[in-house]
Specification:
The chain has 119 residues and is mainly beta. Helices cover 0% and strands 59% of the residues.
């Protein structure tokens, strides 16, 4: 089992910055991939950024060069540094984790944290 605790969301003006965190607690297995997704009102959930166990990263086109994903394996924590925020970045941001044990992989989602970009 995995528990995910997200933090760092809030209200910010356009052009501002926020840093999201996702702390994972595992009872067994290890994390092989982590990602941030977001969902705006009336829209489908979309990938924001992902990072593998070896540090390879991938970003959605709309956030490239503005957002940076990172992870601290010692703390089982993932971060999303969001700069130059735009109103269209508004939405609920979800932490996603894929774990692996000797017999299976499993996917977990956080409860979501609201990010609102507005003047």
């Amino acid at each position: 089992q995995v528990q995910l605790v997200e933090s760092g969301g809030g209200l910010v003006q356009p052009g501002g910055s926020l840093r999201l965190s996702c702390a994972a607690s595992l009872s067994n297995g290890r994390i092989i991939a982590m990602a941030w997704y977001r969902q705006a009102p009336g829209k489908q959930r979309e990938l924001v950024a992902q990072i593998t166990s070896v540090g390879n990263t991938n970003y959605g086109d709309s956030v490239k060069d503005r957002f940076t994903i990172s992870r601290d394996d010692a703390k089982n924590t993932m971060y999303l540094q969001m700069n130059s925020l735009k109103p269209e970045d508004t939405g609920v941001y979800y932490c996603y984790v894929r774990t692996i044990t000797i017999i299976m992989t499993a996917d977990y989602w956080g409860q979501g944290t609201q990010v609102t970009v507005s003047s």
